[in-house]
Amino acid sequence: MTKPPAPSPRPFHYPAPGSPLHCGKVSLATLARRYQTPLYVYSADQIAERLALFQHAFASRDHLVCYAVKANSALAILKLLAGRGAGFDIVSGGELQRVLTAAPDAAGRVVFSGVGKTAPEIDFALNAGILQFNVESEAELALLAARARKLQLPARFALRVNPDVFADTHPYISTGLREHKFGIDIRRARALYKSVARNRWLEAHGVSVHIGSQIRSAQPFGQAIERVAKLVGQLRREGIVLKAVDAGGGLGIDYHGGPFDAAAKVAEYAAAVEDGLAGFEGQLLIEPGRFLVAQAGALVARVLVVKRNGNKTFVITDAAMNDLIRPALYQAHHDIVPVSPRAGSAHAVDVVGPVCESGDFFARDRKLAPIKPGDLVALLDAGAYGLAQSSNYNTRLRPAEVLVEGSKARLIRRRETIADLLAPELDLDAN
Ligand code: LLP
User: Fold this and answer.
1) Residue 274 C-alpha to ligand 1 middle, in angstroms?
2) Which residue out of 1, 343, 356, 422 is catalytically annotated?
């Protein structure tokens, strides 16, 4: 029996021949007219579906999906996820503020990761009553103990261990090897748990691991968890009983379109994690970011100019590297499709932005159907690490964001104004 075709990985589609690209039931041409470009468009339905895949895959055990806020920190998306039972993985006081703004009752579902937490950030999180601090060094553990004592608020912590597992991904986003700055050498962790066992301000609540991002195979996750589970077993025998294992995030997507079965991917990931956990009966935390939001989002841009230099054709859009830096930073691939395709044969073009840098490109030598100035294009799979990594370089205003739910599109972030950008700056003559 042949398997049924995998469902489309993306909510973006042409509902009928000749009709413009839609997000769910909403035309991107209409959205671009209403809100201008560049414009980020996200499918709320897909984000909710992806969360449900993880929740379903781990339904047989106590678990919490802690969405990695850094992937896309839009308040509306945090609210949507919180409403469906998600927790959050944060890496700064700012991200905690966002979570509490979007979902004031979610503090107890927050884990705090990151290699350099400041005392004010720790105090903020202690006062909020977060679930767990993922501690990345001995020095941080000492600081956490000192702040907890000062505030008289015991801190639940997990050591983030570095399992020395290789995961095949871009070197900038791989984190699980001993040579990386992340985590505590797993061989040191046992001694460290024991050294603070009698500290009344520190509660050894869990252990965490995160080996990197955009990891396509489930195997390294299983391998890392297996090492972590072994540590949990050793500690248990020594009288330190951890309640939670945090498996981190990192499950990758396919940026090259084609068939991609998200449900099968999550099931495969869950099987590897469960295998690694073996007999552990406590709570499982996971921190997916990209997998929940990347394919739900597109950056819609308008073509300003099509020009030829030598034998190259450049398609210059009103979006640029400041709006979506992944191609420039990681040589990342994003599929680019016309919102209203024109007939004719495809030609290789460079799709670039107007920023004054040769690194300001979205695609090089990409075969695209004929494109003319004024046309709209959509850069796909831009829901994760898109607006979240945007900047105002070249004093460019950051895009607006729209969230589509069924046939309803809502503006969730207005386009910046020049007044927003200039607001923090002080007049030289006024001080
Ligand atoms: N947990 C921790 C501790 C992390 O450091 C990260 C991502 C995640 C969870 C979520 O990982 P995800 O499920 O999204 O792979 N800017 C890069 C990705 C950086 C990832 C950093 N850490 C990109 O655009 O590809």
Assistant:
1) 21
2) 356
Q: Give the span between the Cα atoms of 134 and 152, in whole angstroms.
A: 20
Number of Cβ within a 10 Å radius of residue 424: 6
Q: In this structure, are residues 221 and 211 in contact, taking their beta carbons and an 8 Å threshold?
A: yes
Angstrom distance (rounded) from CA 9 to CA 25: 16
| 3.20.20.10, 2.40.50.140, 3.30.420.40, 3.40.50.2300: CATH of 113-288 | 3.20.20.10
* Maximum alpha-carbon separation in the chain: 77
Instruction: Quote the tokens at residue 393.
Output: 């370089």
Q: How many CA atoms lie within 13 A of 48 on its CB side?
A: 12
Which of 213, 295, 329 has most ligand 1 atoms within 8 Å of CB, for mutation?
Answer: 213
Could you state, in order of their start, the residue ranges of all structural domains in the chain? 31-39+295-422, 113-288
Active site residue 356: yes
Residues with CB under 6 A from ligand 1: 68, 71, 89, 113, 173, 210, 213-214, 248-251, 287-291, 326, 330, 384-385, 389
Superfamily of domain 31-39+295-422: Lyase, Ornithine Decarboxylase; Chain A, domain 1 (2.40.37.10)
pTM of the model: 0.96
Render pLDDT for 300-359 as a digit per residue (tens, 0 to 9).
Answer: 999 999 999 999 999 999 999 999 999 999 999 999 999 999 999 999 999 999 999 989
